[in-house]
């Protein structure tokens, strides 16, 4: 999104009494629909400051009411039309995501999430070592994988032993609902890295980003939190450090649903039958005909070499599954679609370069965490 003028941001910070921040703030380095981020120099430190604006929040609230109104109109008209039903289902899915989206405007919530995530980082190295050992075994078991791809995956697993994850820290005294000052995240955005050094970006994403996000989702999403907005712009990479940004997009799952998700991942990785997948999906919060549900779930986890995760979401709309999806798991489904879509993109690049299908199933990559421990 176009960034707000710097003078407008300075005026807002002055209203908060952050006069020192006003003197050191620079032009926006990133701007989105909810917030924008500026670089900042304060007391000879390089920092970042994230700001949101009340009129953006009001615009989102208005949009959600418009979607709700449009859905009611379509329902009242009782149109026996496939396109009208699909649009109504899409409006319903948007409504289910309202609470999660509006919470992103509360930067105090994001600061708390960043603190909670930082507290978890000490537990990650041991679990990651276990994941690495499991992946090396899985790679060696794949008999039809090209030797050059096997070598690349093995090398990335070995190199990643010295990598670590970092989360920005909120600066004490500079946190409000509309402004958040935090430590600077170094490195380069994975979004840029995909264009400049695609092989390195793929290595970092597959062998580090995906397992960390899976560990949070399957093991920590009930006792702590999970990050649910894993687009490439939210990760920065440099000198063996993966910085994870935008902790406003997090969820906390009910324990029963987290356990159902763990079982579903394990079953998908093992190639379970549709009825089993659908039964677990129902416990997780997605109900419908077994074959339709299983097809959508497999698509979301990129468990097929030939179907896009985005196609899975479109099929869920067409099959009316989104209207029978629990509200609290909609952010999780969106997260799965983003991760699966990026894996599909990387899978396609491997296919184009090596003329071979290499499995990059999210379920297989997350399977070592399916015990939920």
UniProtKB/TrEMBL annotation:
<dbReference type="InterPro" id="IPR004147">
    <property type="entry name" value="ABC1_dom"/>
</dbReference>
<feature type="domain" description="ABC1 atypical kinase-like">
    <location>
        <begin position="27"/>
        <end position="120"/>
    </location>
</feature>
<comment type="similarity">
    <text>Belongs to the protein kinase superfamily. ADCK protein kinase family.</text>
</comment>
<dbReference type="InterPro" id="IPR050154">
    <property type="entry name" value="UbiB_kinase"/>
</dbReference>
<dbReference type="Pfam" id="PF03109">
    <property type="entry name" value="ABC1"/>
</dbReference>
<protein>
    <recommendedName>
        <fullName>ABC1 atypical kinase-like domain-containing protein</fullName>
    </recommendedName>
</protein>
<dbReference type="InterPro" id="IPR011009">
    <property type="entry name" value="Kinase-like_dom_sf"/>
</dbReference>
<feature type="domain" description="ABC1 atypical kinase-like">
    <location>
        <begin position="143"/>
        <end position="271"/>
    </location>
</feature>
């Amino acid at each position: 999104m176009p960034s707000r003028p710097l003078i407008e941001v300075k005026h807002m910070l002055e209203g908060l009494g952050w006069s020192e921040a006003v003197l050191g703030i620079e032009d926006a380095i990133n701007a989105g629909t909810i917030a924008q981020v500026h670089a900042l120099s304060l007391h000879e430190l390089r920092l970042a400051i994230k700001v949101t604006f009340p009129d953006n929040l009001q615009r989102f609230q208005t949009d959600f009411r418009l979607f709700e109104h449009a859905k009611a109109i379509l329902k009242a008209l009782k149109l026996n039309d496939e396109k009208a039903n699909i649009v109504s289902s899409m409006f319903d899915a948007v409504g289910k995501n309202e609470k999660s989206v509006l919470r992103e405007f509360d930067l105090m919530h994001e600061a708390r999430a960043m603190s909670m995530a930082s507290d978890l980082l000490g537990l990650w190295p041991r679990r990651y070592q276990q994941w690495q050992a499991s992946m090396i075994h899985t790679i060696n078991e794949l008999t039809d994988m090209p030797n050059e791809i096997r070598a690349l995956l093995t090398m990335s697993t070995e190199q990643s032993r010295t990598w670590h994850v970092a989360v920005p820290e909120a600066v004490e005294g500079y946190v409000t609902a509309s402004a958040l000052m935090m430590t600077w995240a170094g490195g380069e955005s994975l979004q840029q890295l995909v264009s400049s050094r695609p092989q390195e970006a793929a290595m970092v994403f597959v062998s580090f980003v995906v397992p960390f996000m899976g560990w949070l989702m399957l093991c920590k999403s009930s006792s702590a939190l999970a990050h649910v907005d894993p687009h490439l712009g939210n990760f920065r990479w440099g000198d063996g450090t993966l910085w994870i940004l935008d902790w406003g997009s997090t969820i906390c799952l009910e324990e029963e649903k987290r356990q159902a998700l763990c079982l579903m991942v394990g079953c998908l990785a093992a190639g379970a039958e549709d009825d089993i997948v659908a039964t677990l999906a129902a416990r997780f919060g997605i109900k419908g005909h077994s074959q339709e549900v299983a097809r959508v779930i497999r698509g979301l986890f990129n468990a097929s070499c030939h179907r896009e995760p985005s196609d899975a979401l479109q099929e869920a709309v067409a099959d009316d599954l989104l209207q029978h999806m629990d509200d609290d798991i909609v952010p999780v489904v969106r997260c799965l679609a983003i991760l699966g879509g990026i894996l599909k993109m990387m899978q396609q690049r491997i296919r184009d370069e090596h003329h071979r299908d290499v499995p990059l199933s999210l379920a297989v990559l997350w399977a070592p965490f399916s015990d939920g421990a």
